[in-house]
Design brief:
CATH topology of the largest domain: Rossmann fold
Structural class: alpha/beta
Radius of gyration: 19 Å
CATH superfamily of the largest domain: NAD(P)-binding Rossmann-like Domain
Helix content: 40-55%
CATH architecture of the largest domain: 3-Layer(aba) Sandwich
EC number: 1.1.1.169
GO molecular function: 2-dehydropantoate 2-reductase activity
Number of strands: 10
CATH class of the largest domain: Alpha Beta
Number of domains: 2
Distance between the termini: 48 Å
Shape: globular
Function: Catalyzes the NADPH-dependent reduction of ketopantoate into pantoic acid.
Order of helices and strands: EHEHEEEEHEHEEHEHHHHHHH
Keywords: NADP, Oxidoreductase, Pantothenate biosynthesis
Enzyme class: oxidoreductase
Strand content: 15-25%
Length: 318
């Protein structure tokens, strides 16, 4: 099927969904956005990507929907909704064609394993790992600070052979490239999710607990030491579970963070706007997998306890 005939669905039009969906639409693709709380604003004013590295992108009108049942059946679905979203499998099954390719753009571990039982067997499930600095600045407005790379890895579905899986991933890469989105193809997603978690686990939680962005966190000796110790716990667990993590991975991540503009991760914005944080996807699953191989993660566990307290306080007081 040619690009012009493909229908692309965006499930969850926040920062991630809004950014990648607008980029794909700007590349000439037929993109349909599912959103709820910001539906009226996006319908009236569209989606704006205010980028520090690319020209400002304003998409208007937007093919926006409140209900997945109103969307056309999509060939490709990119899931920008967080792991805390309800009824995600049902929504995807409603919005997608029977053989849809579903790309899960979420942080955390085992996300695909959790979603797979709720999808039709005929759908392809692909892990998508985003390397991008952005946040939602207002209704329909995304502030893009840096990067945008997506890694794609086939997880499960009717594509049985490596050749079939590779062909689907290549189709996904061509689709993303049409929107000027850099893409890499992976042999799988588990190893990449572990490596991304080395950065995500410390920086997401510490940004909330210390109310600070990356520049301050890496520049202060005390917070830098804590981040390093948390990274070491994730690396030790990953290696205990058979994931090959290169020597020097932590130093490499610090260098990359120092080169970024000051950035507040997604969990910080969830806390700021008093939304549920992705505590289980980023910490709970990690601690359970660590326990299975006899790893102790005292810094990660203490961080999770603090985040649970913070979240319970603001959700209870709503």
């Amino acid at each position: 099927m040619s690009q012009s005939n493909l229908k692309v669905g965006i499930i969850g039009t926040g920062a991630i969904g809004g950014f990648y969906g607008a980029m794909l639409a700007n590349g000439g693709n037929d993109v349909h956005f599912l959103l709820r709380s910001e539906f009226d604003a996006v319908k009236e004013k569209g989606i704006t990507i205010d980028s520090l590295v690319n020209p400002t992108l304003h998409l208007h009108p937007v093919q926006a929907y409140k209900d997945a049942a109103d969307m056309p059946k999509c060939d490709w679905i990119f899931v920008g909704a967080k792991s805390t979203a309800d009824n995600l499998g049902e929504i995807i099954a409603t919005a997608g064609k029977p053989d849809a390719k579903v790309v899960l753009l979420q942080n955390g571990l085992n996300n695909e394993d959790h979603l797979r039982p709720f999808l039709p067997d005929s759908m392809h499930l692909i892990g998508g790992l985003c390397y991008v600095c952005l946040f939602r600045e207002g209704p329909g407005v995304v502030k893009h600070q840096a990067s945008g790379m997506i890694d794609l890895g086939y997880h499960s579905g009717p594509a049985a052979s490596a050749e079939e899986q590779q062909a689907l991933l290549q189709e996904g890469a061509e689709l993303l490239n049409s929107g000027n989105i850099p893409t890499r193809l992976l042999p799988g997603v588990d190893e990449a999710r572990w490596k991304k978690l080395i950065w995500n686990a410390p920086f997401n939680g510490i940004s909330v607990v210390l109310n600070a962005g990356t520049r301050e966190l890496v520049g202060n000796p005390a917070s830098r030491k804590l981040i390093t110790e948390m990274m070491q716990e994730v690396v030790a667990t990953a290696r205990a579970r058979g994931v090959a993590v290169e020597d020097g991975a932590i130093e490499f991540m610090f260098k990359g963070t120092e080169a970024m503009p000051d950035y507040h991760p997604s969990m910080y914005h969830d806390w700021l706007h008093k939304r549920p944080m992705e505590l289980d996807a980023l910490y709970g699953v990690l601690l359970r997998l660590a326990a299975e191989v006899g790893c102790s993660l005292p810094k990660i566990e203490a961080m999770l306890d603090q985040l649970k307290f913070i979240q319970a306080r603001y959700l209870t007081n709503e």
